[in-house]
Amino acid sequence: MKFRTALLFGVPVLCGLTAASALSNPHGHYDFIARAHAEAAPAASKDAANNHAETYKLLTLFGSIFDLVRANYVDPVSDRDLITNALNGMLSGLDPHSSYMTEKQYADMQVQTTGKFGGLGLEVQGEDGHVRVVSPIDGTPAWKAGIKPGDYIVAIDGHNIDGAPLNDAVEKMRGKPNTKITLTIIRAKTTKPIVVTLTRDIIQIEKIRAELYDKTGYIRIPQFTEETGQQLKAAYNDLTKKAGGKLTGGLVLDLRNDPGGLLTQAIDVSSAFIRSGEIVSTRARHPKDSQRWDANGSDITDNMPIVVLINGGSASASEIVSGALQDHHRAVLLGTKTFGKGSVQTIMPIPGNGAIRLTTARYYTPSGRSIQGLGIAPDVVVKESREDPVFSIREADLSHILKNQGGNQTKPPARSDLPALAKNIPDEPPENWPAFDLTKPSTDFQLQEGLRLARSMAGIAAPDPVASLPPVQHPSKPAAPEKNEAPHH
User: Fold this and answer.
1) Cα–Cα distances in Å, from 106 out to 278, 347, 356?
2) What's the pLDDT tens digit per position in 341-373?
3) Is the CB of residue 291 less than 8 Å from the CB of residue 6?
4) pLDDT value of position 481
């Protein structure tokens, strides 16, 4: 394809953080359209003529309904609004990730590479007319306010938004920095709606974050942007210097709640750990548009033990990295199953009239599996908490999703290289585990077990984080009265 198939957006529409332009050729969509017509030309036969006749009938139907709506709708409506709505319906009806963008929406989308936009820092997904939170962006007003994945936003500034188009809700949440906004939220297992007032802020792309836990490195990738590959290498180099030249306790790569981003950066990140072989392949409608990307022959860690943290908010580009590292047995995946978005979206600008985001291919892991609608299962299952997972919505739960097809298997290759400790790691925190606090890594059960597993794989002492906890305190029952004791009144 002449345009660059570099976007794997699809989980969220970003409130205050818009999607990036991934175009190497801003006019590439014209080449695509011309080629599609050329390929169709040899098929001009009786069947093709019948198809054209059917198309003309359907376009006549569209025109008739257009005239009826314009003439009879309860309020006057502009032709542009009607056509825009029709375009939205045509694309969103194909799959959850294809859509039409107006000029303003397209301009907003391009902001992501500069990373400055007024908003809340929420990633949201439309679900049957509802607005559901996929995850808050680290460090943003939404994150600080305690908004959680799985929350439903039902009102903005006291006005009900249930049933409204997703883009309308997103527009209302965006706005000038330092302005107030009130959200009404419904949360599972909470009997009353939660009302939170937030102050919009400049939302900047969260950069890679790195920490050193003793001799074990930790790198968090919140999203795959144009600088992710470079930031990863810089973060790793800084960690090795802090550790005295080598991370003897291995590395933990955190992809939890990472909604994805640029395909090119997913390839760069995977190639930083895999020396040779396939990283990912894409298969498009026309075989000649299918592509494959291989590792670049280097491993910045020199085969260091790696643990990757994943969960239901890990989608798209983060699933490509997870799948590649799992298929090559280069890392052990710990956490819960990922979102399951296995499609590629391409941005095709329509000069003067916005752009379309169109699903143009499926992607496949090195072993040839498509994770579309299935997600990537961890090698070691560890839940975040003892409660039901908040990520009850995944790709498979969305309406009219793309079918999973073309892959040669749905399960990862069998692994015989897992460390012995993997069998002994509990799948959920114990009763006496402290309540999770985003600002306290010691309360992050998945992280602590990931650090423990990485250390075990590196052959150093891997203390059990549960061992140091105080004993479980159960409420004591009052002693039963003795038989000859008079009852109290």
Assistant:
1) 33, 9, 9
2) 999 989 999 999 999 999 999 999 999 999 988
3) no
4) 56
Inter-residue contact 450 to 305 (CB < 8 Å): no
Number of domains present in the structure of the chain: 2
Secondary element (H or E) of residue 218: strand 216-220
The DSSP bridge partners found for residue 136 are: 122
Residue 210, strand partner residues: 219
On whether residue 482 sits in a domain, the answer given is no
- Exposure of 380 in the CB half-sphere (CA atoms within 13 A): 28
Query: Do 15 and 121 meet the contact criterion of CB atoms below 8 Å apart?
Result: yes
The band of 83, judged by pLDDT with boundaries at 50, 70 and 90, is very high
CB 282 within 8 Å of CB 336: no
Contact 256, 314 (CB under 8 A): yes
174's CB contacts (< 8 A; 6+ apart) are: 15, 16, 108, 117, 118, 119, 120, 200
- 178 plus 224 within the same structural domain: no
CATH number at residue 397: 3.90.226.10
Give φ, ψ of 334 to 5 degrees. -130, 135
Report the largest interatomic distance among the alpha carbons of the chain, rounded to a whole angstrom.
102
Question: Angle at CA 485, nearest 5°, toward 481 and 489?
Answer: 80
Strands 117-119 and 122-127 turn out to be unpaired
- Report whether pLDDT(92) > 90: no
Q: For 192-223, how does the pLDDT look when each residue is reduced to its tens digit (9 = 90+)?
A: 999 999 999 988 767 899 999 999 999 999 98
Catalytic residues: 316, 327, 341
The DSSP secondary-structure symbol of 403 reads P
State the residue range of the domain holding 258: 1-39+52-112+206-465
Same domain, 354 and 341: yes
Report the Cα 327 to chain-centroid distance in Å: 20
pTM above 0.85, yes or no: no
pLDDT at 281 over 60: yes
Of 166, 134, 97, 120, residue with least CA distance to 314:
134
Residues 96 and 134 in one domain: no
CB 112 within 8 A of CB 205: yes
